[in-house]
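My convention is simple: the sequence line spells out the residues, with the fold written below as integer tokens. I include a record here:
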Amino acid sequence: MFPAEKKLGIIGGMGSFASANLYNTILSKSPAKNDAEHIEIIIHNNARIPDRTRGILYNGPDPFPEILRSARIMDTLQVDYLLMACVTAHYYCDILQEKLHYSTILNLLDVLTNHIREHLPAVKTVGLLATTGVIKTQMWHKKLRNIGVEVICLPHAAQESVFMEAIYGDKGVKSGQVSDEPQKKLIEACHMLTAMGADAILSSCSEIPIVMRQQHIESLLIDAFDVLTDHVLTQFYS
């Protein structure tokens, strides 16, 4: 089955392992039966992009100029659809789209919100696994409230010592070290959110699926990047 003659771009480097994982997920879920049937994909692994949470919340270096540089490279190459392998980076999605002439950003927040509305109507409360930048800007709160879904977040102390440590810590996923410690912390966070009343866990960080998937927890896990991958494939193979 040959895909549409379009190009997919991935703005990576946020982080690099997560970008590679997203690329591998697209390949593994593709209906392609040989090399020629895969999607044409261009990845810009822009490791120069400063940390999004620090830039948005703590007056750190502004990540937008480098995200824009990557997006303009893709736009110049006439990439049809553009992904950002970082949920926090979607804070800049609307203004970024305004600066592009050719490429269309597939907004993960919109894709996931539509997925829950159409396929998971029984879910009324989600426990959010996300960076502090995503939580403080309430990106998901605003989207999901429009479809009648409430968002539960970890208490601040647990958000920093459990979730953020699992992602950013010395042995966190971003460090690239092979360890079961990040997975244990993420599972702990899921248990806490379920105990707080979540119907499902929303996995909203591109590092999470590297170490934790549905088989690791009993609660329903909604993997934002898995849903995004399915949406991408419908754009190319339907």
Summary: The chain has two domains: 7-107+227-237, 109-223. The chain has eleven helices and eight strands. The longest strand covers residues 7-12.
